[in-house]
């Protein structure tokens, strides 16, 4: 089984990779054949790293300071809850994250505040991954005035629900967003990874 998938990958992927000058990223989350990490490493395909979906089953949250350089770090994918929704989903997990990852004492706030969102995003931006690509909803969560008042409207896809469709729309127009110079300057500053 594993040999078959490795053989197929090594037959097809080098041809695809060499046919484009683009950087290749792989979605290697969840249940994947055991050969996937070594094939991706050998072919220098960037892995996808999400702090709350560790590839090491012995930890609850991935350490962002130990991500492989050949990776894309993100807070979530289109199939997951953005930060503010995730914060509300499971109070026990949120509490552990608040205490163990963010190193705060006491009870975690009920909602993911702008300060917490800022702290989480800043940590992702400091990660050792080559790329940090964050969902727009999480960037918007940094500003109390600009974040969507309806947290549930930020979810793009719910794979377990066949009736759910991709209906996410930014609740502001681009023209409104362009006028938010302080917000835009903050994003530019935060996204500068030198």
UniProtKB/TrEMBL annotation:
One GO cellular component term: cytoplasm
InterPro entries: GH, Glyco_hydro_77
Top-rank lineage group of the source organism: Bacteria
Major localization class: cytoplasm
GO annotation, biological process: carbohydrate metabolic process
EC numbers for this chain: 2.4.1.25
Subcellular location, record wording: Cytoplasm
GO molecular function, one term: 4-alpha-glucanotransferase activity
Natural source organism: Proteiniphilum acetatigenes
Keyword list, A-Z: Carbohydrate metabolism, Cytoplasm, Glycosyltransferase, Transferase
First-tier enzyme category under EC: transferase
UniProt catalytic activity: Transfers a segment of a (1->4)-alpha-D-glucan to a new position in an acceptor, which may be glucose or a (1->4)-alpha-D-glucan
Similarity comment: Belongs to the disproportionating enzyme family.
Membrane spanning residue stretches: none
Protein name: 4-alpha-glucanotransferase
């Amino acid at each position: 089984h594993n040999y078959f998938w490795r053989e197929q990958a090594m037959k097809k992927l080098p041809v695809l990779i060499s046919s484009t000058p683009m950087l290749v990223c792989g979605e290697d989350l969840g249940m994947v054949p055991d050969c996937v990490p070594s094939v991706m490493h050998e072919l220098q395909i960037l892995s996808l790293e999400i702090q709350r979906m560790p590839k090491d089953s012995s930890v609850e949250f991935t350490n962002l300071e130990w991500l492989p350089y050949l990776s894309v770090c993100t807070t979530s994918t289109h199939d997951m809850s953005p930060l503010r929704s995730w914060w509300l989903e499971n109070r026990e997990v949120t509490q552990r994250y608040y205490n163990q990852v963010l190193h705060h004492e006491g009870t975690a706030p009920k909602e993911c505040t702008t300060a917490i969102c800022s702290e989480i995003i800043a940590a992702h931006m400091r990660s050792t991954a080559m790329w940090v690509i964050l969902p727009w909803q999480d960037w918007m969560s940094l500003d109390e005035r600009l974040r969507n008042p309806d947290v549930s409207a930020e979810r793009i896809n719910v794979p377990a629900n066949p009736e759910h469709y991709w209906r996410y729309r930014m609740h502001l127009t681009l023209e409104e967003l362009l006028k938010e110079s302080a917000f835009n300057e903050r994003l530019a500053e935060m996204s500068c990874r030198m």
